[in-house]
Design goal:
Layout (H helix, E strand, L loop, with lengths): L2 E2 L1 H14 L4 E8 L5 E7 L9 E5 L2 E5 L1 H7 L3 E5 L6 E5 L5 E2 L5 E3 L1
Parallel strand pairs: 1-6, 2-5
Antiparallel strand pairs: 2-3, 3-9, 4-5, 6-7, 8-9
Length: 107
């Protein structure tokens, strides 16, 4: 399953509190991007989908669909505060190749 760093947890909780939404992240993979597959990350309210894997990290729930889970096993989600390239970052040990922006990959 995917893991979250302390920085990612803190940032997710900050965003959820500011937007007054639950701290529930939908994390997944979809076709596309310059390397073949793209990550996606969004806040999600309501019930999850049937078959989702759900894990909680210090108040942040993460939902991953079964198909995406195959590509995200052992992936770490971090948050970088760098002014130029800041934001949530995926560190995926399964990625054989990744684009320079880090948002797409191939296995």
């Amino acid at each position: 399953m995917i893991t979250l760093t302390e920085k990612a947890i803190t940032r997710a909780l900050q965003v959820a509190e500011r937007q007054k939404i639950p701290a529930i992240l939908r994390v997944g993979v979809k076709g596309g991007g310059c390397s073949g597959l793209s990550y996606f990350l969004d806040f999600e309210a309501g019930e999850g989908r049937e078959g989702d894997s759900v894990v909680e990290f210090s108040g942040v729930k993460v939902r991953v669909d079964p198909k995406s889970l195959n590509y995200l096993t052992e992936t770490e989600l971090d948050f970088d505060t760098n002014l130029l390239n800041g934001g949530f970052k995926f560190r995926n040990p399964q990625a054989k190749r990744s684009c320079s922006c880090g948002e797409s990959f191939s296995v």
